[in-house]
Amino acid sequence: MAKVHKIAELPGDGIGPEVTVEAMKVVRAAAETFGFDYETTPFDFGGDRFLKTGEVLPDSAIGEFRDFDAIYLGAIGHPDVAPGILEKGILLKIRFDLDQYINLRPIKLYPGVPCPLVDKGPADIDFVVVRENTEGIYSGAGGFQYKGTPHEVSTNIHVTTRHGSERAIRYAFELARKRNKMKQLHLVAKTNVLTFVHDTWWRAFNEVGEADYPDIERQYAHVDAACMWFVKNPEWFDVIVTDNQLGDIITDLGAVIQGGLGVAASGNLNPEGVSMFEPIHGSAPRYTGQGKINPIAAIVAAGMRKPPRASLNRRWRTYSAAARSKTSARDGWATPPPKSATCSSTK
Predict the structure, then answer these.
(1) Cα–Cα distance between 94 and 76 in angstroms, integer?
(2) How many H helices and E strands in the chain?
(3) Please, what are the domains in the chain?
(4) Which of 32, 38, 208, 245 could form a disulfide with 5 if both were Cys (CB 3.0 to 4.6 A apart)?
(5) Which residues pair with 276 in a beta bridge?
(6) Which residues pair with 314 in a beta bridge?
(7) Nearest to residue 76, comparing CAs of 278, 308, 260?
(8) What residues act catalytically?
């Protein structure tokens, strides 16, 4: 009996439900074309539910998610909910509680999508950022003293463990080997300033590379230099590994050079458990219901979760690439489209 791939579907807020509908159309077409079975279960977690019930994401939902093969998320963010409540209560809670320790961000310029860089094309912008996803300054450690007084002290503590950095580094080395493109891995950090936490990353990077991945070339870049090279020489990169905060920042720059937030997708991965896939754009409430948002990022995110069998992997990749090319090349617009664009979210 063929496996049924179970997907927890969280459309979320704003344009999230709109792009989720379009992404699921592609999933359905891929399933019909290549012969795999799946089922989706919708969940209504997001701003509207929070405003009605005061509930963000209960622990019981995390238990339910563990029974799925994957989670698909549309977008999170509501104009009537204070910043941080939904983001921490849904996004970060899922990532941390399900130990989705890899944030995988492909930076790829598709044919027909305008690039802001002069004389750069799809052959130049095709790399992947592996961002550690459960530690660093986003771990939640910190707090206030004397809050609301002239002597207020606030801290956010950058928490790094050898275990956490090494498993991200190993994943990145394996990815560089599987891509078999340049067979190169860049560590992006700030070892000259963050001399404790990034020393842990530096030593793990070199020790793991020397011991287990002698076939992969190791390169290092300070984060400020890496940002410059993203713009000046993006073709220098194959796979990048970095910590949580730096990864959050440089991947948004990567999204810009690949054509905008409307074409950038993300996978929050637990390679041994349940992973979550999402477009990286926000909920864009001002465009909700207007049919103006390019769903390509949502479609690409859906395509990042592939069935486990090798033959289906190849077919899914091929179909996803075709869908991406057709969708993105038609007008090349990202979120939101220019006034001259003729396509809608459903076309």
Answers:
(1) 13
(2) 11, 12
(3) 1-100+274-347 (3.40.50), 116-257 (3.40.718.10)
(4) 38
(5) 71, 268
(6) none
(7) 278
(8) 138, 190, 224, 248, 252
